[in-house]
Amino acid sequence: MNLKYLDAGEIERLLPIADCIDVMESAFSAFGRGDIVQPLRTVVHRPDGAGSLYVMPSFNSHPAALAVKLISVFHGNRARGVPSHQGIVVAFDAASGTPAAILDAASLTAIRTAAVSALATRLLARSDADDLTLLGTGTQAWSHLEAMRVVRPIRRVRVWSPNVERRRTFAEKAAAMHDIPVVATDSPKAAVERAHIVCTLTSSATPVLHGDWLARGTHINAVGASTPNARELDTNAVLRSRVVVDSLRAALSESGDLLIPIREGAMDEGSIAAELADLVLGSAPARRGADQITLFKSLGLAMEDAAAAAAVIERAALA
Q1: What pTM value is reported for the model?
Q2: 79-83, 172-176, 282-286, 303-307: which has the minimum mean pLDDT?
Q3: Which residues does 74 contact at the CB level (< 8 Å), separation at least 6?
Q4: 120 domain residue, yes or no
Q5: In this structure, are 52 and 31 located in the same domain?
Q6: C-alpha closest to that of 271 among 230, 245, 243
Q7: Can you give the residue range of the structural domain that contains 50?
Q8: Is residue 98 domain-shared with residue 150, that is, in the same domain?
Q9: Inter-residue contact 101 to 75 (CB < 8 Å)
Q10: At what angle do helices 105-124 and 302-318 cross, to 10 degrees?
């Protein structure tokens, strides 16, 4: 068996974020139609809490895609100069089950996650939203900045992370790369006030975004927290928002941003307005007025990886 390996450079060349947004829209349309088998991810945690291994399989019948992602998450790696997220996606031929390719999971995840946030932003954010806040300065901050610029006319960016040097370096490099003002702020509150779009992209287990900081009409992409006991948003931020999730089943199993307010008795399952697929298919409304605060809770689904991998493989064959 001679499996082709597609590295980060090839993936980024073959599947730009702007193209991946359309791939994700097709995938969520299929998800909403019931064309995707999407089990919950299996997670193996190190007993000392240092890291975890995620196993994420998915079968998409239309467009055809079969893949499993194996990815490790070790947040302490940043201090070692090693990426926190590392792994592979193994793609199979959906008709025969024959292994087709192995892809770098970190780059594929960065692209597809930002593309899904961009899809949600395109559907939920105000059309005139042009003031962006990034909470976090890691890989997802870079991909989300690019993705938000695809779907909205971003004119100003504010960024915060707890590491002063990282946020200053990010701001300087991002401003030069995108030719727009990027300001590093001293606090998350200063970064968020009057923002039109807020992306939470941290590894924090406790809230970095508070509801009383949010201006009317803000859209939030909550991306960083993906376990039942970790959250980036406080309860007030969730309660002030119209909540949309990538998967209701996954959210009620894995999302501390939502499960903690539910355990507190502040909300229940009925407080979740829709899945992203409902918005894509038009079976649920998006924004209800300019002043409404909207929240997309992203956990990241294996079907996103399968769809993105299939698109990369198809393009690699045509190249």
Answers
A1: 0.95
A2: 79-83
A3: 50, 51, 52, 82, 84, 86
A4: no
A5: yes
A6: 243
A7: 4-109+303-318
A8: no
A9: no
A10: 110
Amino acid of residue 184: A
Co-location of 195 and 56 in the same domain: no
Pair (130, 228) in one structural domain:
yes
Q: What is the DSSP letter of 141?
A: H
**Residue 234 CB: number of other CB atoms within 10 A?**
19
Helical segments of the chain, H only: 8-14, 17-33, 105-124, 139-151, 164-178, 188-192, 235-239, 248-254, 256-264, 276-281, 302-318
Q: Report DSSP state, residue 86.
A: E
Q: Same structural domain for residues 183 and 244?
A: yes
Q: Are residues 191 and 273 in the same domain?
A: yes
Domain membership flag for residue 115: no
Are 306 and 94 in contact by the 8 Å Cβ rule? The answer is no
pLDDT digits (tens, 9 = 90+) for 179-202: 999 999 999 999 999 999 999 999
Structurally, the chain folds into a number of domains equal to 2
Kind of pairing between the strands at 36-37 and 52-61:
antiparallel
Residue 83 domain-assigned? yes
What b-and-e string marks burial along 127-164, b requiring 16 or more CB atoms within 10 Å of the CB?
A: eebbbbbbbbbbbbbbbbbbbbbbbbebeebbbbbeee
- Position 94 in a domain: yes
